[in-house]
Amino acid sequence: MASLSIRGLAVRYGATSVLDGVDLEVADGAYAILIGPSGCGKSTLLRAIAGLERPAAGTIHLGDRRVDALSPQARDVAMVFQSYALYPHMSVRRNLGFALEVRGLPRAEIDAAVEAVADQLGLRTLLDRLPAALSGGQRQRVAMGRAIVRRPAVFLFDEPLSNLDPALRADVRIELKKLHRRLGATFVHVTHDPVEALALSDQLVVLEGGRVAQSGPPRELYDAPTSAFVARFIGTPPMNLLPGLGDGHVARVDGWNRSFPTPLVGPVWVGVRPAECTLTPGSWGQVDAVEWMGAERVVTVVRPGFPPVAVQLRDRDVGIVEGGVDLSVERAVVLARL
Amino acid sequence: MKPVSLPMALAVHGALLIAAVVALYPVAWVLAMAVSVGPVTGVVPWPTEPTWTHLAGLARGDVAAALVTSIVVATSAALAGLAFSVTAAWALARFDFPGRDLTLAGFVATQTFPGVVMAVPLYLMLDALGLLDRLLGLVLVYAATSIPFSVWTLKGWFDGLPKDLEEAAMLDGAGRFRTFFSVLLPLLRPALAVTGVFCFLNAWNEYVLAATLLSDPRAFTLPVVLQRSVGDYGADWGAFAAGSIVASLPVIVLFFALQKHFIGGLTAGAVKG
Q1: Are A229 and A40 in contact (CB under 8 A)?
Q2: Contact yes or no for A102 and B174 at CB 8 A
């Protein structure tokens, strides 16, 4: 178990810079999630921590050990691959025990460790099967077991849930959370799914263009994003960004009688979470569409000169929503408009 | 699939039948010769005065000895060729180093020359190494000549293996060699079988180099011995035919045993990845 500390990390493929000066601190025992759009460098960052990518600059420390020049074998990290990367010719038992076998542990010790992990993950009856004879969810558990059995300093997960169907994904998400609590180890997990990111992390790291856009507790990123990019990326539906004007003290949005404190001057974004809006009959905008999602309704409101505004309403709260509406907001963040 | 009309089916099967007869006719001739006392005449290859003497005669010294020699040479050449090819293929598939593309292109270039072109240089090289008339020399030559083809085939298979597996093994603590032997080689078993058989047959069927590099009759391989049975002053076609049948048997057996792998192997190596 160890903390993770990354300073000024750069990774380049030829002339292309994939990571460009990443600074990141992950506390011992934290569950950190790296999230960002395709090509933001999140998987590359994970692979650099694992030792599978060679950094062009910067340092990586696990605890007080500097590891960026070490081979993957010497780093004491375990990784669950998106493809699971189970050894197809080895039984589940050998897949789980391979790392211990490589270390030259005695057979009895390997068996005991493998069986303990198999019991934890409900793989006991599958130990003698080959990966080809397992379902997707079972393979996923074997891949996790292979990481657990080694007791590494840091666990790395590369989109571990992306190959599972939605129902199973929710189950495994809970499994992951419980596993993290049980092991008390440092987890670093890459995903592109904002729901997964909010549900699992206690540190959320948003990457943009090879840099850390914002890092902190998920609630902080949700409530107080520091850029329009982070605001749009976290939360579903994404935060509404409405054009407003700042005067150095407050920002106003055209047609709203509320103002929001900000030191910014000139054009700003006023960010409002869809779940933190309410609608009353009025004339600010027109209801354009209503999507019923079961427990909630997402109402799209349009006003000329504004992007469409999504409003999330609990389904039981309101009757028919249509026609002209006024928008009242509980809370907003004011962000620089570049 | 569209149903095929009867005339079309008849035409296709007729054409295939003719092709099969054309291919098998010489083989039938050899079979007939092997069990005939005199020469086989006429259009239909049918034995004249059937006899087992030619086949029984194979047990005599030189053919039996040459058979053993051929088995030893071809097996050793296949194993040596595979050992070099599989490691080279891995390096060419997975590592990026200066000269990599040139090496691959070079391997293809060597395939454009007929084997005979190499006979003289190989003769001089083996002479310099003191390996003329030695089976080791022949094994090295056969192993070396099979390498370009084997490397290309095996590289195709390596390209088709997900890189994740190697990375997973590295993170599990396995070094390059452990990864190679514990993870990659077991997965390449079908490829190794197919490529190994190609190497074996390359050595097994080879005549020109063997005839050039060997002059001691005790070291002759089967193709050389067979050729010598058809001499300047008379030809023992019966013995030649019987020997040819024996020489073909391992090839036929290997092809049938590995038929599935061959078809799968050739396409998988080429298309995967």
Answers
A1: no
A2: yes
pLDDT-flagged residues of chain A (< 50): none
Q: How far apart are CA B168 and CA B186, in angstroms?
A: 16
Chain B contact for A137, CB < 8 A? no
Last residue of a domain, one of A199, A229, A259: A229
Segment B66-86 mean pLDDT: 93
Range name among A90-94, A149-153, B10-14, B214-218 with the lowest pLDDT average: B214-218
In single-letter form, the type of residue at position A213 comes to A
Q: Which two tokens stand for residue B133?
A: 């008339």
Best CA proximity match to B31, nearest among B263, B266, B252: B252
Amino acid at the residue B143: A
Distance of alpha carbon B233 from alpha carbon B39, whole angstroms: 16
State residue B61's pLDDT score. Answer: 67
- The reported pLDDT for the residue numbered A317 is 62
Q: How confident is the model at residue B271 (pLDDT cuts 50, 70, 90)?
A: very low
Residues in chain A closer than 8 A to B170 (CB atoms): 51-52, 71-73
Same-domain pairing of A138 and A203: yes
Together in a domain, A48 and A138: yes
**Closest-CA residue to A34 (of A190, A157, A160):** A190
Residue with tokens 């009895």, as numbered in its chain: A108
Segments forming the whole domain that contains residue A209: 4-229
Residue B227 confidence (pLDDT): 84
